[in-house]
Amino acid sequence: MDFGKLSDISKVDFRLPPDAPETARVLADALRKPKPQVYVGCPVWTCREWNGRIYPSVAREKDYLYHYSRQFNTIELNTTHYRIPDVTTINRWRTVSAKGFTFCPKWPQQISHDLALQYADAPAGAFIESIKGLAEHLGPSFLQLPPYFPPRQASVLIDFLETVPEEIPVAVEFRHEDWFKPSSLVEDTFRQMEQLGISTVLTDVAGRRDVLHMRLTTPVAFIRFVGNGLHPTDFRRIEEWTGRLGEWFAAGLQSLYFFVHQPDNVLSPDLSLYLIRLLNQKFNLGLAEPRISAQAVQGSLF
């Protein structure tokens, strides 16, 4: 992911900001569950460099999803941002995926960027019908707003979200800088998202620390973490996230979707494994650990 990418991270303050004031209330109002549902994954499943590492050395590209879904329990499905999958494709994905595996499909750029959520009934309807076919494998859909979509267009966003059926969960990523400046309009938008059951996306990336706004609108956390090639700060950031997630679990967080990006994503499984092991050790979640050959991971757990 190029958004917020920096060539020099030496001066970046990677510390997590405090929670937004309303996050505690959202979690306190949530229905308590014995154990949160936790999903950790990568942004892609097609990566030839994973052959012999997390896939069999002779794995074929057409079989990558089969192998991926038996190593991780979720995927940030970015391919749907560029093309709405047809019925045959959706059926294949659903059929080959392991039990309990979830897809988090990204809304098509035609809807979010080209049309900016207006006059988008036809493509939105086609996308919704498509991803419904994932059935029990469907997780939150991911609506990324373009950087030119400011708070003054909040009514457009809410009008659009009101047309999405309840069975299609949605998480929204904001990018325009004004969404991260305190205002009654921004807070009103978050409140309306709460009422609609729409989640927010938290993006942890070096060059745009403002997008890590820490405002939850549902008891679902959707986190996009962008690492820097297993730099030591990647591991420290994951450790800090584990602490914050522990606070959220205790406060009432029901579900976590955590997606680990790396340059070219070749090393995404390594940092994902580090996170999963920490979560299992600290919270006894019993998450299956991906099996990685020839590990090249730093950190105290290895």
> How many domain units?
1
User: What name goes with the CATH superfamily?
Assistant: Protein of unknown function UPF0759
Number of helices: 9
Output mean pLDDT. 95
Strand content: 5-15%
Please summarize the sheet with the most strands: 8 strands, parallel
Physical arrangement of strands within the biggest beta sheet: 3-2-1-8-7-6-5-4
- N-to-C SSE string, H for helix and E for strand: HEHEHEHHEHEHEEHEH
Unreliable stretches covering 5 or more consecutive residues: 295-302
**What's the total count of β strands?**
8
- The helix fraction, in percent, is 25-40%
Q: Report how far apart the termini are.
A: 27 Å
Assigned CATH class? Alpha Beta
Morphology call: globular
CATH topology heading: TIM Barrel
Assign the CATH architecture. Answer: Alpha-Beta Barrel
SS class = alpha/beta
Alpha-carbon Rg, integer: 19 Å
Secondary structure layout plus pairing:
Elements: H1 23-28, E1 37-42, H2 64-68, E2 74-77, H3 87-96, E3 102-105, H4 109-114, H5 121-132, E4 141-144, H6 154-161, E5 170-173, H7 184-196, E6 199-204, E7 220-226, H8 232-251, E8 255-261, H9 268-283
Parallel strand pairs: 1-2, 1-8, 2-3, 4-5, 5-6, 6-7, 7-8
Helix pairs in contact: 6-7, 8-9
Q: Which tags fit this structure?
A:
302 residues; alpha/beta; TIM Barrel; eight-stranded parallel β-sheet; 9 helices; 14% strand; globular
Summarize the structure.
The chain has 302 residues and is of the alpha/beta class. It is built from nine helices and eight strands. The chain has a single domain (35-283), classed as Alpha-Beta Barrel (TIM Barrel).
